[in-house]
Amino acid sequence: MAARPRVVVVGAGIVGCALADELTERGWTDVTVLERGELSGAPVPPAPGLVFRTHRHKTMTEFARYTAEKYHGLTLDGRRCFRDVGGLEVATTPARWADLRRRHGWATSWGVPGTLLDADACAALHPLLDAGKVLGGFHTPGDGLADSRRAAEVQARRATGRGARFLGGHRVTGVERSGGRVTAVVTGGGRFRADVVVSCAGLWGPLLGDLVGLTVPLVPMARQYARTTPLAALSGAAPPILRHQDAGLSFRTHGNRLGVGAHGHQPPLSGLTFTPDDFGPSWAAAAELLPPLRGAEVAEGVNVLVPFTPDGLPLLGEHPDLDGFWVAEAVEVAHSAGVARALAEWLVDGQPRTDVHACDLARFEPVQLAPEYVHARSRQSFAEVYDIIHPAQPGDGPRPLRTSPFHERQAELGAHFREADGWARPQWYAGNADLPEVGKIPDRNEWAARYWSPIGGAEALVARERVALFDLTPSKRLEVTGPGALPFLQAMTTNQLDRPPGTITYTLLLGEDGGVRGDLTVARLAADRFHAGVNGPLDLAWLRGHLPGDGTVQIHETTPGTCCVGLWGPLAKRVLQPLSTLDFAHHVMGRHEARFTYVGGVPVLAMRQSSVGGPGWELHTGADLGRRLWDALWEAGAPHGIIAAGREAFTSMRVERGYRTWGTDMTTEHDPYEAGLGFAVRADKGYFLGRDALEGRSAATVTRRLTRLLVGDPHAVVLGDEPVYAGGRPAGYVTSAAYGYTTGENLAYAWLPVAHTKPGTPVEIEYFAERVPAVVVAEPSDGPAGRG
Fold it and tell me: What PROSITE patterns does the entry give (predicted)?
């Protein structure tokens, strides 16, 4: 690619204009922005422009925060692009009030100032609000209104001043390519040479993706937006933007008129034209909360089409099979500048400073890109925008797309399933309700007990004391082969993989900046054959994106045709001994060793490792033989009290042992030493991606650390993302948390400045707006780890 590549941005909306501004500011000035219509500088109809910065995802909050800060500093012809009138979210139900207290914690964790208010204080902020209708509210002074028209135009002007050009009336009809790279964009008005093409086409994004064989999983959904007749109560200064999530409503002012956004309906509406019948229930709910509306009318209304994805998050990243073709789609005005900055950093620097894995285009499994699934889940994400979402809430959309060979047996045992990446994954088993261990599990408060059962705790106790079967089939598995397999994996990962066949190694994937992109376990099965357990589609895309072009390395995903069961617990050896062709009684397998064997007549790859700590094996075989393997283990395990155990037990046991999970405990924003994973880095083995960035770093040089906490209140089961206070001030935030059923400890992990990470240091965790005492404790005796 040229030092200053030719960039074509498709779409001159707010995102395209922001991206052109960010790219040209970084020296990429050969930028052409193409718009299919006229260059109006704003969406049609204009977006309401509400910027509520606090989001349950740290990344989305960062996007919104940067957007507000940037637009606050921009003016167009003397008029501001952002007004920080503040934001107010109100609760009319106890459940919503609890949710707002939790949201206050998110804001504190992500650095957004905010205050919880009583009903009278809420009414004092907003002149239309009936204090008798609300229980309280959450006020964030820095939130406000972005003028999308002005913001788009001023950024376009800035980019133009640096060399960019904006052209209207250019509908893209083709994208040319050569040697696996984009070379040009073709429109009805001409051909534009390009080294990089970025789709910021909004609702037209899927059509542009079709031109290059890329599925862009978004569906247009209609939100209703109405403006009222003038209201006398709005004659003063603009009140804060207002959100009434219990009714799916948002409000902003237009001078002395009120704009009402309605999201309470179920899609689709009667049509794309605004209809009073569709808006009627929302208007009634608005008038109940804001009594002055009872004397007003709807002066005008529109249905605003908004692109929604299956998980409600943006789509960012590069085409997996066409270098140079990028997307930035499903982006709201509130996140526009933040997304543009992240993508510009990604293009220019090779990686954004903000972790974007939750928004990465490659995050979906192939089966999740089926049109039926995309449509159904996008509709669901639309309907759930204002729902109170619990971390353990089961997926209640379309039935799971993928089931393991054990599914029938699990259903017979009363499995409580939750969907994960399209898989039906057991959380716990109703068939274990009569276990005597159930009575040993402490109760939880009402919120923490949602979508939870003490059965999961009992399963953890049995797994530690006897033996249990865990279905690991949803975990992604790869086979890396070829004469170049070892050099490739050595260059891509941090640990030493040049070890004898049969060895299992825990290792990391890093970015060029040394940030952790993923972790994986690699079993060397032969000189040129490796089995890799990875986190998901992002790891697969990263590895495939770095394959050498000489064909010496092949990567095949084996997940669909295989299955895996974790046989874990102190009696696991006794279960395996009579079934296997290996002599488990005499300990023929060392820790972190892989061997081929037969178990109950089933050919199996047995890997002596555990994701929950303690003794046991992962047993891999073909999907066609999975149920036979399960049945053989179940029958042989009966005399030893074997049970099936679910994800609740898995998570508790993982946290007890201090095992990290990528994407939760560490991301690209953290290096291995900060995350306590320095043991997986072998700088002396030779080159690997990210090695140079780690030079001079060590556990002794870090300024922050992933830290283990013991929570004082056993009933305050922390959910994750809560702020942690040290010395009375916010200092960090929680990542993983779980009650340790077998240790009797309420545990959490948190990112904290190194000065507050010494064992014995007292801290506090904000739990639903209350401070819960906690203390820093040492890692388990065998030290932190990834997968055991």
Answer: PROKAR_LIPOPROTEIN
